[in-house]
Amino acid sequence: MVQTGRISVRFCEPPEALRRFFTTFHLVEFDFAPGERVVDYLNPEWANLRFFSGEPPTATSHDGHHLTGTRFSVSGPSSHSLRFSIGRARMWGVGLLPLGWDQFVAAPAIDFADLSVDGETHPAFAGFAELAGSLFGPEPDADAELARISEHFAARVRARQRDEARILAIHAALVDPEVGTVAELVRRTGASPRTIERICTRAFGFPPKLLLRRQRFMRSLAQHALDPSLNWIGALDGHYHDQAHFIRDFHQFMGMSPREYAALDKPIISAVMRARDSYSGSAVQTLDPPQGGAAR
User: Fold this and answer.
1) CATH code (residue 283)
2) Is residue 22 in a domain?
3) DSSP secondary structure of 42-97
4) Is 269 a residue whose pLDDT tops 80?
């Protein structure tokens, strides 16, 4: 567990039989004063299920959509920052890798790209309603809660799914810093462009070209977040042609300039990124390779 002021973060590895489906299971506890709310911004990421006890968050997407008051929120794969505020609460996050989305959600990921919904009312996530209702007991018990999460998903694993090998191959290529073009992605995976496009929209949430742009951007953002002493040029991924190229992507993915982002107070996401990097060697989940999360 990592504790930063009034925020504590605990990352947990899923059971071995489930590792290929998830980034991590993680518990974040917000020890804020009654009525106090803190604002922060989520980075672009894979899909996440988030379960809350205490004061529920309010999330605002890039297009102005608000989600508030839910104890179980689902965020699809994202290519934009998500503004949120939260008060005194405990939250379990379940990060779904593309293979995990394909395994546990009976809807194409592209249908939920850059979308946050109430998991208790949306029919696509009815299979998680039991977990949302039973996860938290009368007293906080992190080990018991982790066991309930693990048991819930272990009981719902289907037989090897269609395109599993191709999903894993595409994912492995996406997180490889040497792969910067769709042509190289096609070469690495050995699948046709049409097949890659179909699988990406179903399991990854976006077309392959946008996924590669997001990976390039997130490598740069993570590098800067872990070492703020670097200027942005020092953190740039090698696939950027120049700083102007990066700034255009920053506006696309974060909705602001690098300077505006650097000036923001990021008490929650900074604590989570540091804890994640300490736990797994990967500050953001979009950089996790397939088959069980970040390399250890």
Assistant:
1) 1.10.10.60
2) yes
3) EPS-SEEEEEEEESPPEEE-TT--EEES-SEEEE---SS-EEEEE-SEEEEEEEEP
4) yes
